[in-house]
Amino acid sequence: MNAHAPKPPLAMFPYRDRFPVEDKLREVPRSREEILAELTTVAAEEDKLGMSGKLSGSVYHGGHDHYDFLTEIYRLYAHANVLQRDMYPSATKMEGEIIAMTADMLHGECAEQVSGVVTTGGTESLINPMLVYRERGRIEKGITAPEVILPVTAHVALDKACHYFGIKVLHAPLADNWLVDVDWVAKNITANTVALVGSAGNYPHGLIDPITELGQLAMQHDIGLHVDGCLGGWLLPWGEGLGYDITPFDFRVPGVTSISADTHKYGYGLKGTSVLLYANPSLRHHQYFAYPTWPGGLYASPGMSGSRSGGIVAATWAALVTIGASGYRDIAADIFATAAKIKAGVNAIGELQVIGDPRFNVAFRSDVVDVYHVSDYLTSKGWRMNNLQLPPALHFCITRPNTKPGIAEQYLVDLQAAVEYAKHPPQPKARSGARYGLGAEPDGETKMIDAMAMGLDFMQSLPPRD
Q1: What is the pLDDT of residue 50?
Q2: What is d(CA 205, CA 363) in angstroms, rounded to the nearest whole number?
Q3: How far apart are CA 2 and CA 10, in angstroms?
Q4: How far apart are CA 257 and CA 248, in angstroms?
């Protein structure tokens, strides 16, 4: 036991002095009533920011009546294992219909024979296609040193996938318009390239890469093109019908061979689902794993996951069929309009520059002030932005809670004040920085991994409990 272990930062561990620390199983368990009361209190406190409309991304629907309905659906199947399809054939039905509805939205009729899988989230929907393109290159072309070309703005989960699967990553730079430099991509395709990637839209700046041009390269070299629509895949399709200029990115674009789209983001499902679509079943086949001689029986799996809860499948299906095309279109209209208002407001502040021409995720930088000081001030006013780096910037990813009356107007007032604050900050170094998943933590010097490590030290330093 380390009696001198450093205390974790309060922002990361705010409950250590309020509730019991469960560092080992109790001999006498706590009551259900006590646990329900504790977590009800915590959940209500933590939900305030997301429901306030001052949060960038993260909470996409924000309606607790919607969440209550989905959790009721989840309850019916929470114990069900999708792996056991003979016991729960309804899960197969619902998964198939989730895939079909997503494919219809993304013009799967234009693909050779669209097929897909439901995954546990965006990361799995990005890991699987990297495996597929590695295997296709190995089996069909004899490629033993596979390479994938990603924009530098592509989601880092793709780098994680390539790390896992031994794929060399070439990070393509951006052109002057903040989109991937297609000429650079073309010059760096080699005999070992198995796939290209484009985003719709990318996490940092919310922009759609030139998918049409990437598709032409993919066809020319007979390689895959994965479109990462994990963030925008369930929102951008409605923009075209609403009159917005949306860069083509779906299966209507020749050369697109796979698309990921998270149903737990703008699909408004509960956290933990995404859809991965392939242009044909032969591609999907490459992600299957089968082992016929295991003593436990013939083993076959369509993806990374084994056991999965039927609850999340049922809740996702229920979200799609109860919102419907008209509901998604109406919510999208509010989101696009709010983003346009914020983009115009940011452009009106001389010290700030919007990055590219975003439709729903408005990123901005500054050559005049430190944007992390801007973030510090916004945090003090209750806003939680996403801080970016390379270059330093902030983004406001607009979701349904941000479309409430007065939110955009108040944000622009506070943003103007934040810029003035950043011109003469009280300390030279901003307290916030760019850390994915943490927003603008006031304890900006503490890295997330350090905090997690200190948390473990803290747990180990606790005295024995009575």
Answers
A1: 84
A2: 5
A3: 19
A4: 14
SS3 255: coil
Render 203-245 in DSSP notation, one character per residue: TTT-PPP-HHHHHHHHHHHT-EEEEE-TTTTTTHHHHHHTT--
pLDDT tens for each residue of 52-81? 999 999 999 999 999 999 999 999 999 999
**Alpha carbon separation from 265 to 65, 217, 260, 272, 319 (Å, rounded):** 17, 30, 12, 10, 11
pLDDT digits (tens, 9 = 90+) for 92-135: 999 999 999 999 999 999 999 999 999 999 999 999 999 999 99
Phi first, then psi: give them for residue 426, nearest 5 degrees: -70, -20
The pLDDT, as a whole number, for residue 435 is 65
Note whether 167 and 147 are within 8 A (CB): yes
**Domain ranges within the chain, ordered by starting residue:** 76-319
* CATH fit for domain 76-319, picks 3.10.180.10, 3.40.1190.20, 3.40.50.300, 3.40.640.10: 3.40.640.10
Specify the pLDDT at position 15.
87
Residue located via tokens 């895959």: 224
CA distance 9 to 66: 34
Please name the residue that has the structure tokens 């502040």. 349
> Angle at the Cα of 287 (from 284 to 289), degrees rounded to 5?
125
Closest of 86, 194, 82, 68 to residue 143, by C-alpha: 194
pLDDT tens-digit series, residues 448-461: 444 444 444 544 44
| 307-320 mean pLDDT | 95
pTM of the model: 0.90
Spatial contact of 71 and 270, defined as CB atoms under 8 Å apart: yes
Q: Name the nearest CA neighbour of 127 among 312, 307, 304.
A: 304
Q: Which two tokens stand for residue 4?
A: 């001198």
Element (H, E) at 137: helix 122-141
Helix, strand, coil % (nearest 5) of the chain? 40, 15, 45
139-173 in b/e burial notation, b at 16+ Cβ within 10 A?
A: eeeebeebbbbbbebbbebbbebbeeeebebeebe
Task: Say what the alpha-carbon torsion angle 414, 153, 263, 338 is, to the nearest 10 degrees.
Answer: 30
Helices 371-380 and 407-423, packing angle to 10 deg = 130
